[in-house]
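pasting for the record
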Amino acid sequence: MQETKLKMFEALACGLVDNGVDCLFGLIGDANLFMVESYRQQSNTRFIPAVHEGSAVLMAHGYAHVTGKVGVATVTHGPAVTNCVTALTDAVRAKVGMVLMAGDTPTANPGHLQNTDQREVAALCGAGFEQIRSPATANADLARAIHRAKAEQRPILLNMPADFMWLEARY
């Protein structure tokens, strides 16, 4: 199988489709905008926008509950992730397998105004956490998050550094 050269945001969009995600809920921002648009352009996919980050998580929660599939939501970083606390906690208590794809501040800028320890936010809610380690591992990290959500029957926050999005990824 020959690798295709894609930017990480494009590879993640294709990875969602490869993992059977036909519906994505979310609120876009600077750290997930291009991934969402790339996903939306895939065939047989739907992006359903929310007006609040917590609502995106609740929509993925409801989707997972009704369909039996892993629900997937996406938000941008920092305060957007903290806006998900109540909905994530509810999904943990309901034992719902879902993934929250959260953009993250650039790794090279720890002083970024929106920098939040998103691993700790996930832990506060009882959700699992997966870090995209590099653009080369992005789709393996995504697949692991989806697998964990299903196996553990709880939300998994997939942390996506914004500065990785425009780098070349393996696909």
